[in-house]
């Protein structure tokens, strides 16, 4: 270990997307020594691809209240979201958006100069009565505008970035405290130990465990893999959101803001089929609901195209002006990825993997919590997680559109504040065990020495096809059980990955191999958690457990008696544990579970 | 789950000539020829490059969002800067010649060192400056004032423009370059920003702004269809107005 460079910081943030940079800004302003590590230049992080908006009950368009937002989010989560966390997020939302505006965010504006808000799926006024305009938007580039704004403010605050550094493993001591990470500087191939009094994981989701995904190539669940290898559980990983409108064949996202601005989904006969499935919210029902309806239409032979394998998103009635002003990127994507001029013709879409509801379990401050030997939930000293890699849990079994960007802002800030309030500048670094970096070095050495190893992407490709086949919109018990076996086999195959490229300099094959190690953890957590949950809830729909809405025992297949609880997957032995859902908000009345129709 | 139906092109093979340089092994750069069988599912240049990378994993390139919004995969494609992920293979003639962005040091293959590019970006104070105590809610901005940011804030910092600019090639340390100046304009144009005078002072310099000779390569190559040249013109107008 003597040969490895060591650097020390007060705080280490892994990931420079929306949540990581919101946290780093808070910490830099508090005067702490912060290092932010990122595989890519900060503005290339996947937050940049978010299109539609940030949910906050500003009430700029019509009456709105955070209570309504709270209700919508609880119902959207199919009651799996923790109501204390949901209250915290929805109550903080307006402040989080105003702050971002003060940072320079170029929001669209209303005639009176306030922030423009558009309708979005599952967002209603007066507890489900009618759609409300809650999504604070910058055209259909909200994530881009937000990520750049946060980077800009970090430039101003002189945050120290380590760009194109990939974190490999968490470092824990015998007491289980996290003392930093091992990391690879991609340009030089050097491995270093970065010590910190607090380590914040903000590495985003693992959407690349699926073949058809709206996610960037970098979304390989690195923080989740690191946590799993360090013995920290992953929560609710069976819940993956299929976004209803991915461009058929390309996977590229078309924002729900299209439907917010008035677009509708049509089947082969031109019918606006969502009217049948969700009479009140129609095309603005939550995503799990719409994706299932689309899949149903396709399965029952009402899909479009020569193979009947997609439906159409119709924006032709919106007019060129609205489309150019509110949906310019969608216009561009239609032309580039589907040869479709959305002003004139509808565009083929299919439900496409988009968002990971589960993640590393945390409390409201972003502190990672894990079960202790006695079964109680304990804070892991020195470790925080925020954003898509974390599960606090505000999204439960299905996230509402616009709540992801909000999650990044609210919990990025909360974690930053909590770390800033911990008095770290005055405390000393704990002593790092001598063998702390050994697992990383062993893993890297094995990669280097595997002369005839397989290319990482060959294994990853097979993994993605497996997940796509066995953990999709509609799942079956037999299919998931088979998926569990296949993923276990792929884990063994991943051990045989090797490198053809032996260069030290910007070796992307090495990075990909390290990423696949993280993908495997996320895929196995997903598959095993899914196969064990014997009900239908939110995005987890299993044919074997489907029931009608008027089922006396389990309406719509949701089994609150046995399954109103969070899954915890532990890597060692691929073991599952469970913990209760928090149904008690902080200050308001709870929203008790009820039938989920729209 | 519905499968993809919209294939790009029929199965074919395409030829590439790609700049290769690995400082760990090579004394000097070389061009390497490839012929790659495509199955028809590859629509964009990036799709083909990832197919090629499965056969030769040693080829280094940056990529992330694969939809033209993160700005990672800028490169010189058949002599013209662009993003691999939104360059349609059908629009390219063979052999497809790929080089790193011109004018920046090469780290390896198609990966360039962007330090100088970002240094110029950082030099324009790329953040809103407004030290007045903020209101309880949002700062108000009329739709017309917001409109002034259109065409500037959308920049993805891919560096296609600056590395296509001869003025930037000659003076990368002194000339801000089109990308940086576009962002300078974004903040000058923002009704909420209070540092317009300082921003203009900073740019009133024979090199920082006035090395732009309206060659317009920046406009020609911008993958987002932005017009840095027009933004630079507006900054020059403001400087003139200030004197008058």
What general outline of chain B do the C-alpha atoms trace?
A: elongated
Q: Name the strands of the widest sheet of chain B in spatial order.
A: 2-1-5-3-4
- Largest interchain contact: A-B, 82 and 65 residues
Strand content of chain A: 15-25%
Largest sheet of chain B: 5 strands, mixed
Low-confidence stretches of chain B: 1-8
Average per-residue pLDDT of chain B, rounded, comes to: 94
Q: Could you give the count of β-strands of chain A?
A: 22
Oligomer state of the chains in this structure: heterodimer
SS content category of chain B: alpha+beta
Q: What overall form of chain A do the CA principal axes indicate?
A: globular
Count of DSSP-assigned helices of chain B: 8
Instruction: Supply the helix-strand structural class of chain A.
Output: alpha/beta
| Separate helix tally of chain A | 16
SSE order of chain B? EEHEEEEEHHHHHHH
Can you walk me through this structure?
The complex is a heterodimer of chains A (598) and B (244). Helices cover 33% and strands 21% of the residues of chain A. Chain A is α/β, with parallel strands linked by helices and 598 residues long. In chain A, a hairpin with a 5-residue loop joins strand 7 and strand 8 (178-185). Chain A is globular. With 244 residues, chain B is of the alpha+beta class. Mean pLDDT of chain B is 94; it is low at 1-8. The chains are: A alpha/beta (598), B alpha+beta (244). Chains A and B meet through helix 3, helix 4, helix 10, strand 14 and helix 13 of A and helix 1 and helix 3 of B.
